[in-house]
Design brief:
There is one protein chain. The protein has helices at 9-18, 24-47, 57-68. With 69 residues, it is an all-alpha fold. The protein has one domain (9-68). Helix content is 67%, strand content 0%. The protein has three helices and no strands.
């Protein structure tokens, strides 16, 4: 998807300094992936103890392999 967006210069520069990437596109993609991963983890943590989640080690590994792709 192609998009033109205005990003706060200070936020972008700070993220660029912290990220191990070389391009603007790679930085934006990395930030989106990390945001999604954090929200997924928060959602799963919220389900802890509710009885709705019954994961074993294989399930956790499957989640991890999904994030790598």
């Amino acid at each position: 998807m192609r998009a033109t967006i205005a990003i706060d210069d200070r936020l972008f520069e700070e993220a660029r300094k912290l990220a191990p990437v070389k391009t603007k596109k790679a930085l934006v993609e990395l930030c989106l992936k990390e945001f999604i991963q954090r929200r997924r983890m928060e959602h799963l943590a919220g389900l802890y103890g509710s009885g709705l989640v019954d994961l074993d080690v294989r399930d956790v590994e499957a989640f991890r392999s999904d994030d790598e792709g």
